[in-house]
Specification:
About 50% of the residues lie in helices and about 15% in strands. The chain is α+β, with helices and mostly antiparallel strands.
């Protein structure tokens, strides 16, 4: 059974129950009113006929009975009298009634009240409303059949039943039409769900009035569908990244493994002259170190993809910048490396993060500048702290590495943070690494709740900026996770 049919049947059932209760209450109330009217008339007739009936019971001439009968109205009243000796006199009533009512009324303790209180008696299959009163010489019974009351109530029930059926038919029709219209959004939801199940994740449910239940349901479903689509998209992207990552890693590991295997085969075959043995072993060690570096970078990237930095402490970016710049000066003494700190509060240069991860991040940026710029090119590390007046959720410290190198074209800048991406041209010059250094920069920044950006032009000059959430006193590790 459909929801529409269930709702319609429920509404019709409730309406029918209400109508039946209304009809029953109306019939009971009307019956009580009609019986009360009969009782009033019976008492009035009893008062009018009391003395003439007493005269009849006392032995008045029979010629007075026609006068008594003309005094009794209406003629459907049953008037009977019973003398003290038990004789029953029929004074008025239907001509075809052969058995007196008083004959069926018990005497003694089981007799009905004889003080003029109305009561109901059944005689010959007919119900009567009667009063019994004691008069000199016997007792008098005045009764009126309740056929009129019964017929009136029967007509009322028939008319009410017909009206109730008409009302129920009208309500059922209107309910079907209204429910068909009201449940149309649910049918749209069902068709949308079927389309989504078939693979069309872009489908959305039309939103109705925001205060209606269907409108709220549509909004909730659209939010859920958006999240599902985003999850599927992320899953597909993750699978694609995983496949590309595996292919790139296999490709990168193949070269050193091939070289190591070739050198080992030469050594085992005795094809390397003794004078070149040390040089061959040195090359094997270099390829092994290269492969070890690549594996370490891959493992670190996998760690950043799955987990946030575990050590969350207060990190002074200026200290990290100065230490990393000193390391570059030691490696490349001929290069001018400067550290500049933007003006601002000292607390603005502090962030909550993993100091080792941030040192590696900045070290990768400086290594990238050293490898891909000519010797002697100036490198500047700039630290910009967050402003205390900025809302806590918008505070961000910036680590920037600027170089005066040849720059790179926009198509290279768009992919510079991709894994295993190595640009050809002036920034490579045959000195490219594994292609994971800048990927680690971007992944580390994301793990700290920030981001990495690059701006460069082919005319010269490249700047890498890393934005890190600031405000140690206002944020917790959970806020940055």
């Amino acid at each position: 059974m459909t929801l529409r049919l269930k709702l319609m049947l429920g509404l019709v059932t409730l309406t029918a129950t209400g109508l039946i209760l209304t009809i029953v209450a109306t019939v009971v109330a009307l019956r009580g009113y009609l019986v009360d009217r009969v009782d009033v008339r019976l008492r009035a007739v009893e008062q009018v006929t009391r003395l003439p009936l007493a005269a009849v019971l006392a032995g008045a001439p029979t010629g007075s009975r026609p006068v008594l009968e003309r005094a009794i109205a209406p003629t459907d009243y049953v008037v009977e009298a019973r003398r003290t000796d038990g004789e029953i006199l029929r004074v008025a009533g239907p001509a075809d009634r052969s058995q007196p009512l008083l004959a069926g009324i018990a005497t003694g303790k089981a007799a009905p009240p004889a003080d003029g209180t109305p009561f109901t008696v059944t005689h010959g299959g007919e119900r009567y409303r009667a009063v019994l009163d004691h008069v000199p010489g016997g007792e008098v019974l005045i009764a009126q059949p309740l056929a009129t009351v019964r017929d009136t109530l029967r007509r009322l029930v028939v008319a009410a039943a017909v009206a109730a059926l008409v009302v129920l038919a009208a309500i059922a029709t209107l309910a079907w039409l209204l429910l068909t219209r009201g449940l149309r959004p649910l049918r749209v939801v069902a068709s949308t769900a079927s389309a989504i199940a078939a693979g069309d994740l872009s489908r959305r449910v039309p939103e109705g009035p925001p205060r209606s239940e269907t409108g709220q349901l549509s909004r909730a479903l659209n939010i859920m569908l958006g999240q599902i689509q985003a999850a599927f998209t992320a899953r597909v992207a993750s699978q694609n990244n995983l496949r590309r990552f595996a292919a790139d890693a296999s490709h990168e590991l193949r070269t050193p493994l091939t070289s190591i295997r070739g050198y080992v085969d030469l050594l085992r075959a005795g094809m390397v002259p003794p004078a070149e043995t040390d040089d061959t072993l040195r090359r094997v060690a270099e390829e092994t170190a290269r492969m070890q570096t690549l594996v370490d970078d891959l493992l670190y990237l996998a760690h950043l993809d799955e987990l946030r930095p575990r050590d969350r402490v207060d990190v002074d970016l200026v200290t990290i910048a100065e230490d990393t710049a000193a390391n570059l000066r030691a490696v490349d003494p001929g290069r001018l490396v400067t550290v500049e700190v933007e003006a601002g509060p000292e607390a603005g240069r502090h962030v909550l993060g993993d100091p080792d991860a941030l040192r590696q991040l900045l070290g990768n940026l400086l290594t990238n500048a050293r490898v891909h710029t000519p010797a002697g090119t100036t490198v500047t590390v700039r630290v910009t702290g967050w402003d205390a007046a900025t809302p806590a959720q918008d505070r961000a410290a910036v680590l920037a590495v600027e170089d005066g190198g040849p720059g790179m074209p926009p198509e290279v800048a768009r992919h510079v943070f991709d894994r295993f991406y190595r640009a050809a041209g002036s920034r490579a010059r045959g000195r490219s690494g594994s292609g994971l250094g800048l990927s680690i920069v971007a992944a580390t920044a994301a793990a700290h709740g920030g981001r990495a950006e690059v701006s460069s032009t082919p005319e010269g000059g490249t700047t890498f900026r890393v934005y890190l959430p600031g405000g140690v006193s206002d944020q917790t590790p959970a806020d940055l996770a």
